[in-house]
Amino acid sequence: METASTPGRRTRGEGPTPTQLLEFVQRGVLDAELIASLPLDPEERTWLRLEGPEGSEAWLIAWPPGTGTGWHDHGGSHGAFAVARGGLTEDSLAVRLPTEGWKTLELAEGVDRVRELADGRGRAFGAHHVHQVLNNSPQDHAISVHAYYPPLPSMRRYSRDGATLRLEEVELPGEWE
Question: How far out from the chain centre does Cα 37 lie?
Fold first, then answer.
């Protein structure tokens, strides 16, 4: 049990850690019945809301060929995702961005990261993670499981032109469901 008096530890009621969310999504991608329950659309992403652990928000998402999220963050929530079928590419920034008070940032060289995630692979991330997720396959759907804690309070959407990152909008719950 983690206590408030122990550095780096959680107190009861703080919800799952990124590692626990990763364990949850990795179990989810092994659930063949769950994965088969998701309807696939040839052009648009489809999703089902799932019961996440300890009050977290979780989703099963289908990615048609060539689709993606665009650059975004998770409004201060930490999370994890894993691929059940197909492959996804995650482009991310290895830098902590300020959360308030800016519209345009010039990114330094060397902050870009690319991860290729295939069947069964996943990753956890912290509360200030900025990324985009893409299905680069020209013909195959990808399916993944995602979990966030606390449940997403907002999502900030960004556009990117070279080294310039621009905050475009802030979405609130219900606007992406």
Answer: 21
C-beta of residue 96 within 8 angstroms of C-beta of residue 121: no
Say how far apart CA 64 and CA 73 lie, in whole Å.
22
Entry pTM: 0.90
Q: For residue range 17-39, what is the model confidence (pLDDT) as tens digits? A: 999 999 999 999 999 999 999 99
DSSP per position, 19-46: HHHHHHHHHHTT-HHHHHTS---SSS-E
Q: What is the pLDDT of residues 86-108, one digit of tens each?
A: 999 999 999 998 878 999 999 99
**76: how many CB neighbours lie within 10 A of its CB?**
15
Q: Looking at the domain 18-171, which fold is it?
A: Jelly Rolls (2.60.120)
